[in-house]
Amino acid sequence: MAEQVDTNSFKNGMHIELDGKVWRILDFQHVKPGKGGAFVRTTLKNARTGAVIDRTFRAAEKVEQAIVDKREMQFLYREADEYVFMDTESYDQLHVRPAALGNAAGYLVESANAVLAMYEGEIIGVDIPASVELTVTETEPGIQGDRVSGARKPATLETGITVQVPLFVNIGDRVKVDTRSGDYLTRV
């Protein structure tokens, strides 16, 4: 169910359909050279694979806009190898495979909210907060007097991901982690 959209109407975050694939517009620039026709230079991200490409369109060229349904969902629990989400409006439950969630799966704790982007019944993306607070479940103890500036050690968090944390962080501590880079931000 796609509709035609003019390249002059592009916006960052808009989804378009090219060659049977759904792409998200990361960036675009209208270019009007002194000679020749105007064009639109874009950076597109494949919604399924994450591949990023640059593509140029003629000004006012028509492309198919992909209508993506974004739903606020709450993560309930893991069941076998699937994640169970609940739609916050209809209370319907949805079973999602980890591959559809990508890196976001490592930052989901029970009752956390996420926005799932769906296209033709398939999950093509997930938006989670820029940072999350997680509990350290496993790490080596910091040795007294070993306080080298900037020294780090690996720590396993409650979701199973491992991040590098400062030496003073211990088991049971809550830490804030950047979900975009996977970096430790601060102890909470």
Description:
By secondary structure, this protein is mainly beta. Helices cover 2% and strands 54% of the residues. Strands 1-6-2-3-4-5 form a 6-stranded antiparallel β-sheet, with no helix packed on it. It has a 5-stranded antiparallel β-sheet with strand order 9-8-7-10-11. It is flat and about 70 Å long. It starts with a strand and ends with a strand. The mean pLDDT is 87.
Question: Which residue ranges are poorly predicted, with pLDDT under 50 across at least 5 consecutive positions?
Answer: none
Largest beta sheet: what is the strand line-up?
1-6-2-3-4-5
| Rg (CA only) | 21 Å
Q: Could you give the order of the helices and strands? A: EEEEEEEEEHEEEEEEE
Mean pLDDT: 87
Give the helix proportion (percent range).
Answer: under 10%
What proportion strand?
over 45%
Span of the ends, CA to CA: 46 Å
**Structural class of the helix and strand makeup?**
mainly beta
